[in-house]
Amino acid sequence: MKLNNLMNCDYDIEISGISTDSRFTKKGDLFFAVNGFNVDHFDFIDQAIQNGAVAIVSDRKYSDEIINIVTDDIDGLLVEVLNKFYDISDISLIGITGTDGKTTTSSVIYQILSPYINNAYLGTNGLDIKNKHYNTSNTTPCVDELYKCLNLVKNNKCSHVVMEVSSEALLHKRVDSLKFKIVCFTNITEDHLNVHKTLDNYINCKRHLLDLLNDDGFAIVNGDDKNCKSILHNNLITFGFDDDNDYVIYNVNSSRKFVNFSVKCVNNNIDICSPLTGTYNVYNVTMAYIVCHLLKLSDKQIIDGIRNLKPISGRREFLNFGQDYDIVLDYAHTLNGIKSLVNSFNDKNQLIVVTGAAGGREVSKREKIGKFLLENTFKVIFTMDDPRFEDPKKIVNDMIGNCKNTNYEIIIDREKAINYALSNAKENNIILIIGKGRDNYMAIENNKIKYCDYDVIANYFNHK
Fold this sequence. Notes:
Elements: H1 3-6, E1 17-19, E2 29-32, H2 45-50, E3 55-58, E4 67-70, H3 74-85, E5 92-97, H4 102-113, E6 119-123, E7 126-129, E8 132-134, H5 143-155, E9 160-164, H6 167-171, E10 180-185, H7 193-196, H8 199-207, E11 213-222, E12 236-240, E13 247-254, E14 259-265, E15 268-274, H9 279-294, H10 299-307, E16 317-319, E17 326-330, H11 335-343, E18 351-355, H12 364-376, E19 379-382, H13 392-400, E20 408-410, H14 414-423, E21 430-434, E22 441-444, E23 447-450, H15 453-462
Helix pairs in contact: 4-9, 4-10, 9-10, 11-12, 12-13, 14-15
C-alpha cells in the first residue's frame, strides 16, 4: 500500500509492513518510533533502517536522509494506519482477563468452538488458527503485532477470536482500538503490583475491558471473587458456587482423571464431565460453557466438547514418560494460582515442588509463596525463574524469608534442579514443576536464552 494512502502526506512510496520493534523490522516497512513505557523506540531508528525500513514516523525530527513523518500523536496515527493497512473487520472478539485462568479458559473455549465455528486462539501460548500455530511475543501482543495476528485470522476466514487480555495490555492501551462481543473476568487477586502499584489500580485497569465491550455485548464474571463484585454492566452474567449467581455450580465430584459437576441457571440444569481437574478448572470450564452458550452452541455440543478436551499446554499438564510417579508442569506463578494448584492434589505429602520467582517483579509476594509451599508440600526445590537483572540467589532467599521449615533444597540452575527432583523421585510422588509452563526461554538480563522445562524433562528420560 502507498504511504500517501495510509496517511496525509505526498509520498507515494510502497509500504510492505508496519513495525514498532526495530529488531523485527523488515525490508519495505514503515517504522513507528513510539515512546514505550520502558524504552523510547526513537533510539532504535538506526537499527530499523538497517533492517529495511523505508520510512519513519516519530514524535520529533530524526533525519532528512529518509522519509520522516513527524507527528504529535504517534500512538493515534499508528492505530489509524494499522486500520487502513490491515483488514480486521467483522471479527467477533471474546476477551478473557483475570489474574489466573486466562490461558485455560481461552483454550477451552477455542477447543469447544472449533468443530462448529471457525475461530482462533490468541494468548500466552501464541496464536492458533485451524491447527496451525504461530509464536507471539506477549500474552497480548503489542498493537502492531496484534493487528498482524488479527489480519492473519481474517485471511484464514475465521469469524471469532478468543484472546487473553492482560492487565499490562489494558494499561498500555494495546487493545483500546478494538471492540469485544464478550468479555470475561476469571478472578482478580494481587499481581503485577510492581507495575500497577496498588490493588485498586490493578482492579480498575482490569475493569477498563468493560469500556471496550460492544453496546449489546455481555460481561461474564466470577461472582464468587470478592474483587470481581465491583464489576457492573447492563448485560452482566455471574457464575460460581454462591447461590446468588446466575449460573450456580454444585455437586462437584473429583477423581484423578476427571471432575464431574453440575450447573444450574434459570431454565436449565446441566451435568458436566471434564478432564481438567481441580476446583479452579471447574470455574474455568463453567465460564467456557457460558461463552459457548451465548454463541448459540447447544448443550450437547458444549458438554461433548468439554468431555473431549485435550490437555492445555503447560497448565496442570501431566507428563508420562513411563515413570512410576507423576510429573506435572504448570505455569502457576501467583500466590492464588499456586494455592489453587497445590490444593487440587489430595495427598500433599507426596508433592515435591520445583519453583522460583521472576526477577523485576513484585518482591512482596515471594515470601508468601515460599512460606505456603514450605508449609503445604513435602519438599521444595528453589531455583531460578526469569531472574532478569536480579541475583537468583537473592530471589530464593526472599522466597524462604523467615520461614523456619527446612524441607527444601536450593539448586539455582533450573535444569539441574529439575533433574535432581526427577532422579530423587519415589513411587507415588508428584513432581510439580511450576512457574514457566511451556515457556521457551529464560529471561536473563536483557536476553531471552533458549530454555524449556518440558525439554529438560524429556531429555532426562531420553538419556536415562
